[in-house]
Design a protein that fits this description.
With about 220 residues, the protein is an alpha/beta fold. The chain contains nine helices and eight strands.
Length: about 220
């Protein structure tokens, strides 16, 4: 029987990079659900569809295909209509669009089966906003990973600067605060700690310490 680990938390908490490293250490499959919403957001942007409940969104979902696959290194690849968009969905603009599109009930329903089927067929660490509360409420281990807005913005700023992107810390901090509010106040599957989850705050931890903490929590609970 497969084992599912649900890792939730706000934007910029380091869920993806930490979960990816932990999954490799534990020989689990890492599933980045945020990438799925970013991908639908990219599709909406390309077609000029507003990220609100509408006939246009329903039509968009009927016209696209979103798939997850993995390369020889076990790294997740996200496909939009067969196109690898893994690199195109990592901009601040894509992040904000993902926050908006993820509030649309039909979008969440569209992706729900895809996410659950991954957990049924693999040992997974799945990260997102509502994994422990909605997607995998029966996950073996539920973790809520967080850090202060300032710490999360600083980490994101450093990451984007290292990629050569021209960004301002203040803009990223404002985006983090805005997304926190949007994610926690949306009507559909708002961001919140799942019942029975383990809270992990990484504000004062570096990346390696954060990874060690998550692996420790998982090992203690499976």
């Amino acid at each position: 029987m497969s084992v599912a680990i649900a890792l939730d938390g706000p934007a910029g908490a380091g869920k993806s990079s930490i979960a990816k490293r932990a999954a490799k250490a534990l020989d689990f499959i890492y599933v980045d659900t945020g990438a799925l919403y970013r991908t639908i957001g990219l599709a909406a942007t390309r077609k000029g569809v507003e990220p609100i409940p509408s006939i246009e969104v329903e039509k968009l979902l009927s016209e696209i295909t979103v798939d997850l696959t993995f390369n020889e290194k076990g790294e997740q690849i996200v496909l939009l209509d067969g196109e690898d968009v893994s690199g195109l969905i990592r901009t601040p603009e894509a992040s904000m669009m993902a926050s908006k599109i993820s509030a649309v009930p039909s979008v969440r329903a569209y992706l729900l089966d895809l996410q659950r089927n991954m957990a049924k067929s693999h040992n997974v660490i799945m990260d997102g906003r509502d994994i422990g509360t909605v997607v995998l409420p029966d996950a073996k281990v539920k973790i809520f990973l967080t850090a202060s807005p300032e710490a999360r913005a600083q980490r994101r700023y450093k990451e984007l600067c290292e990629k050569g992107m021209d960004v301002k810390y203040e803009d990223i901090l404002n985006d983090v605060i805005t997304r926190d509010y949007n994610d926690s106040h949306r009507e559909t599957a708002p961001l919140k700690p799942a019942e029975g989850c383990v809270m992990v705050d990484t504000t004062e931890l570096d990346f390696e310490q954060s990874v060690e903490k998550i692996i420790s929590v998982i090992k203690e609970n499976i």
